Amino acid sequence: MVDKVLRIATRQSPLALWQAQYVKQRLQAYHPDLQVELVPMVTRGDVLLDTPLAKVGGKGLFVKELELAMLENRADIAVHSMKDVPVAFPEGLGLVTICEREDPRDAFVSNHYTSLDSLPQGAVVGTSSLRRQCQIAARRPDLQIRSLRGNVGTRLGKLDSGEYDAIILAVAGLKRLKLEDRIREALAPEVSLPAVGQGAVGVECRLNDTWTRELLAPLHDTDTAIRVTAERAMNTRLEGGCQVPIGSFALLENGQLWLRALVGAPDGSQIIAGERRGEPGQAEAMGISLAEELLARGASQILHDVYQGEKPQ
Ligand SMILES: NCc1[nH]cc(CCC(=O)O)c1CC(=O)O
């Protein structure tokens, strides 16, 4: 099997290509003789990039074609931003590797202002994430939040053309694209709690493919996996869909796991936040228990209202 090539199914956005190249390089660092090939694909999500996500069926659209390629043995792995990976996987596929996390914070990006707090009254902020929107609106009810979609480059272009006074993006994406000089301020988790899995890259493959799984094993980062497991368990218990006002962020401190989460009304009028501290082995149980607390304290109603508003008329 010396000549076997490991094939990575990838979308063609700059961020997706960076992630695929990153996994390729890390694989070859551990296995110098391994041949790795990128298999670029167009997903339905890419075709419909300008349509609001909620209307076209959500994040799953970006991964379905990649998963089909793995199931039909046209590719061996797919590399995902953990924050974009749906809760469930098709039969036979699963997430087997989570790589070390990059900076998980949100970034404040502006050509005229140095920080979120220094924005003037009524300034226009671009984001299509309900999670970012609800937290910014809660902190600064005077700001006008406007929709902003597209790849990172497209979003920066819309900022530069003057449509917005500032936009919010992930620090990790900007760093990966060597655009970190655009960051004016990295927002602390207390200001903008990140999305589940933000900053982490995960690898999906056929679960019965032991050749690939053994090659991937050294890329796995246990600390990141524990943190993301807690965050995802929280989100799964909330039944968090694709477009949700949910933040969740876990840290390991002195061997203890600290999980924070929030659910907010999109207009920022209400934020329900909570936390858990416990043993890393309890990551999943902590996520579930925190989600249940938030649901009981009002998150259930908020999420119900958000999903009602999403339904096609
Ligand atoms: N939703 C798009 C997306 N998916 C992952 C990242 C950034 C990298 C990451 O969080 O791993 C981004 C861009 C952004 O939110 O600014």
List keywords for this structure.
hydroxymethylbilane synthase activity, five-stranded mixed beta sheet, Porphobilinogen_deaminase_C, 313 residues, Double Stranded RNA Binding Domain, 13 strands, Porphobilinogen deaminase, alpha/beta, porphyrin biosynthesis, D-Maltodextrin-Binding Protein, domain 2, 10 helices, binds the ligand NCc1[nH]cc(CCC(=O)O)c1CC(=O)O, 24% strand, 3 domains, EC 2.5.1.61, globular
Structure description:
The structure is a single chain. The radius of gyration is 19 Å and the shape is globular. By secondary structure, the chain is α/β, with parallel strands linked by helices. It is built from ten helices and 13 strands. Helix content is 35%, strand content 24%. The termini are far apart. The protein has a five-stranded mixed beta sheet with strand order 2-1-3-10-4, with helices on both faces. The chain folds into three domains: 5-100 and 200-220, D-Maltodextrin-Binding Protein, domain 2, CATH 3.40.190.10; 106-187, D-Maltodextrin-Binding Protein, domain 2 (3-Layer(aba) Sandwich), CATH 3.40.190.10; 231-308, Double Stranded RNA Binding Domain (2-Layer Sandwich). Ligand PBG binds at residues 81, 83-84, 152, 169-170, 172-173, 198-199.
Furnish the topology, listing elements before pairings.
Layout: E1 5-10, H1 14-30, E2 35-40, H2 44-47, H3 53-56, H4 64-71, E3 77-81, E4 93-98, E5 106-109, E6 124-126, H5 130-139, E7 144-146, H6 152-160, E8 166-170, H7 171-176, E9 183-187, E10 201-206, H8 210-216, H9 222-237, E11 246-253, E12 256-264, E13 271-278, H10 283-310
Parallel strand pairs: 1-2, 1-3, 6-7, 6-8
Antiparallel strand pairs: 3-10, 4-10, 5-8, 5-9, 11-12, 12-13
Helix pairs in contact: 9-10
The structure holds the ligand NCc1[nH]cc(CCC(=O)O)c1CC(=O)O.
The ligand NCc1[nH]cc(CCC(=O)O)c1CC(=O)O is lined by residues 81, 83-84, 152, 169-170, 172-173, 198-199.
